[in-house]
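=== Structure Prediction Worksheet ===
Name of assembly: unnamed complex
Input type: mixed (protein and possibly other molecules)
Chain count: two
Listed entries:
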Amino acid sequence: MATVEAHKNTGMGKDLIVYFCLLALAAIQFFIAYQNISPTQMFERMLCVAVIEAGLALLFFMHLSENRGLRWFVIVFTVAVIFGMQYGWTDSFRLSNGVPWAR
Amino acid sequence: MSQADLTMHGHATAGAMAEPTFSVPAKKMAMWLFIIADSATFAGCLVAYGFIRNATPNWPRPFHSITNVAAMTLILLTSSLTMLIGVRSAHAGDKANAFRWTMITAVLGVLFAVLHIREWMGMISEGATLFRNPWGTPLFGASFFSVTGLHLLHVTGGVIALIAVGVRYQRGRYNADDLEITGLYWHFVDLVWMFVVPLVYLLNLAH
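=== Predicted Assembly ===
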């Protein structure tokens, strides 16, 4: 209950800081889009920024920073599922490059 | 009082005294479980999109301007802030302010949806549909409209939920916790957009 009370009593200052950080990170993504770099580098950089944005939103807008147990529950479950989906990537490269009909 | 009564009473008391999982109320926990499941749905869509993009040579880059998508991003991020103000007002007992900010959030959601549909109409007028793409592979239209359509569906659902919960909160049928749970969903919709923008729009920007 203490955690619930804590976030009820916190002022708007922190929320505003997080909001402006999210705006700045979104602007960085748009800036990266105009860089003269390879699509792979662009993808990696944009994904890094998106993960930081998502982390900020989860921790402060969705108040996960105030509940350690729930935080770990959400992170472990979500990351495990998303990582599980990456299993298909090797097959995607095999389909696009490795099989006889790909060429 | 019989032994059976005592036993039942004992179980009921134990149930009522049991600590909720992670000290989170059941309704909020249900929303978190929904968010985890829904993030898997979106991750599945985005991974499938990446799979298709990777395996398709000459993937089109039809976006010439970022103005519309930048405005949509600004609106959605701002709506998250207004939602936070609404929830804080509700927890402070300021019912009128909480209702006002929740409705402002809903209006921002509608504005986002209007801009989104306007963009869709522009693409459709150029010949792009779910099964057709004037710039090359039809898979582009299929993946673009599927991913952004799923997100737009979530925004529409969120706006309906915000209005329904906001009105019932105003009438005293729902409390501040219910508003907070709806806010969680709204922040999640915002969070998903942070991944849709770079992967679907910015990586397909014409240089």
